[in-house]
Amino acid sequence: MPAGGAAAADTQVAPADPVGGGAPTSVVDDAPLATEPTSWVRSGLLIVALGAALAALTVVAGASGAFRVPPAEVVGSVLHRLGLPLGPTPDALGEEVLWQIRFPRVALTVLVGGALGCAGALMQGTFSNPLAEPGIVGVSSGAALGAVVVIVTGLAPFGTWSITGAAFVGGVVTVFAVYVASRHDGRTEVITMVLTGIALNALTGAVLGLLTYYSDDAQLRSITFWTLGSMAQATWPKVAVVAPLAIAGVVAAPVFARRLDLFALGDGPARHLGVDVERTRRRVLLLVAVLTASAVAVSGQILFVGLVVPHLVRMVAGPGHRLLVPGSTLAGATILVGADLAARTMAAPAEIPLGVLTALVGSPFFFWQLRRMRSRQGGWA
């Protein structure tokens, strides 16, 4: 049965849409989940396990590095800052390392990973395609292009925040351009949007290559950060800038869960069940753009997280987006914290670019998923 098919059976048409405005729509958001108790138990265990894994990895990431801090002192330092005088604490240098270097990096990695995981689940839902990810509509390459333009031209209207701001604007503008270019007669088709995204990705890639060709050595080092991805430049001010956007996006995402379940039936059946497909897709794309652009604006391009994470969660929690979206958010944060820990410790004192590491792991998974889908469907033709 297609994803959301069980939920669709319980759907009734209603005269007004609380999210979509005045267009006739359904009461799908108020319908109970058609999920067996065992699935709820399994999904609950998954959320608890992901939360525990994220907490454990956070402690390990705080303890690991050139200046080692015992895990007990990492926990003790956090508890003391929270007003709970429990456990040992590190010395002054250890406190400085934890709160000025490692904790900002871990916090930013959690936000970026959670935003990318959530955006990936939304993209695969609204495109009804398990091979979709945020980068398919050009948001990652657009953000990188915005940052590189500022680096190469030297424009800095907002001081040190000019590159980050240009990356965010570049990501959002690219998604808007893909949506407008693929829209015809008031409607957008998924395949047209995907092909438009591929074309725009190729165009931004060509411009990036041209700008890289004309850049000097110092600019090349900055460009490398945006094209390969890294958390090495994490600071508390960056965390403060990204946190409101990422948290707002993650909180808003479950609102669309029931509609995304119905998208699995196809645009036509979803319309017949009362979903305003165009309005929902437009709002989901805006949410994906904000989540992904805010993440890429501080980390550079980190590929395959939005593609791989929803698949891993779907294997355990099933296709329902009310569990898939928060599960992908937690799993994205957990996996990226682990990947960043590996990136800065595997080749210490050097650091492997985070985007390279996620691509090395994500590419084989993508090939495996392609073969798995082909074997299930009996071919693509």
TrEMBL record:
SUPFAM superfamilies: ABC transporter involved in vitamin B12 uptake, BtuC
Membrane topology, record value: Multi-pass membrane protein
Keyword Repeat: no
UniProt biased composition (Low complexity): 1-18
GO molecular function terms listed in the Swiss-Prot or TrEMBL record: transmembrane transporter activity
Family recorded in the similarity comment: Belongs to the binding-protein-dependent transport system permease family. FecCD subfamily.
Name the UniProt record assigns to this protein: Iron ABC transporter permease
